[in-house]
Write a structure and sequence with these properties.
Layout: E1 2-6, H1 10-27, E2 32-36, H2 39-48, E3 53-57, E4 59-60, E5 63-64, H3 65-74, E6 80-85, H4 91-96, E7 99-104, H5 109-118, E8 128-131, E9 136-139, E10 144-150, E11 153-158, E12 162-166, H6 169-175, E13 181-185, E14 188-191, E15 195-198, E16 202-205, E17 210-212, H7 218-230
Parallel strand pairs: 1-2, 1-3, 3-6, 6-7
Antiparallel strand pairs: 4-5, 8-9, 10-11, 10-14, 11-12, 13-14, 15-16, 16-17
Helix pairs in contact: 2-3
């Protein structure tokens, strides 16, 4: 699990990291913790790298943590958010930015554990692994919006970022066996949870992607989606 923490107080940052590591050892969690003392550096990192949870201090010398998070949300970056602060001044703004928890300082281990619980850290979730040119990545199937094939590569578009994988789409389908994945075209696999519109020749997904529907199977493909959608109510 990738955790990013930003606090301009080095002592507070180290204490947060220490408590996270202790919780990780207690529950046998593999945590990758990256820390930053400046909001701009933290944002630059998150624009290029995914994170499961972001701990953001509200009162930073380099700016307001709420505004840094607002910039990240405007780029459609999806992560669980925990604000760190010594007061309740920005409680309303924190909820507007979909914060999972509002953690008051000084940090208390039981409160930090509660924050992680709100972020779903202790939920047992399935992951699948894929090999990119640079690394092996673990992805939650539910976070995948769409997979498309281009020039022998599969581009896996998730809520956090896009991964380029050298694979056939059939090989990926062997891993993505959940009932919410639908092959709409020979080179496009969608997660039906993200469908926002169904049209005559494409599905409109939440990230703006238009997934084409193969002409010869148009009725069958749309019917498969409608049957799945009815079961979700």
């Amino acid at each position: 699990m990738r955790i990013v923490a930003c606090d301009d107080d080095v002592n507070e940052l180290e204490e947060l990291k220490r408590q996270l590591q202790e919780i990780g050892e207690k529950y046998q969690l593999l945590l990758d913790i990256r820390t930053f003392t400046e909001g701009e550096q933290c944002c630059e990192y998150l624009f290029l790298n995914s994170a499961d949870i972001v701990f953001m201090d509200i009162y930073l010398k380099s700016g307001n943590g709420v505004e840094f998070v607002r910039r990240l949300r405007q780029h459609r970056l999806n992560f669980k958010l925990v604000f760190l602060t010594s007061s309740n001044d920005f409680a309303i703004e924190s909820y507007e930015l979909d914060a999972a928890y509002y953690l008051l300082k000084p940090l208390q281990p039981e409160k930090l554990e509660q924050a992680l619980k709100r972020c779903g850290v202790f939920d047992k979730e399935e992951y699948v692994t894929f090999d990119t040119a640079a690394e092996t990545v673990k992805i939650k199937p539910k976070d995948i919006i769409v997979v498309e094939v281009q020039d022998k590569y599969c581009y896996i578009h998730t809520v956090q970022r896009t991964y380029k994988v050298y694979s056939s789409i059939n090989k990926l389908r062997e891993k993505l066996t959940q009932d919410y994945f639908l092959l709409t075209y020979r080179s496009v696999l969608i997660n039906m949870h993200y469908v926002e519109g169904v049209y005559s020749n494409y599905f409109l997904l939440g990230n703006g992607f238009k997934a084409p529907i193969r002409v010869r199977d148009s009725a069958a493909v749309r019917n498969a989606y409608m049957q799945w959608a009815l079961l979700q109510d």
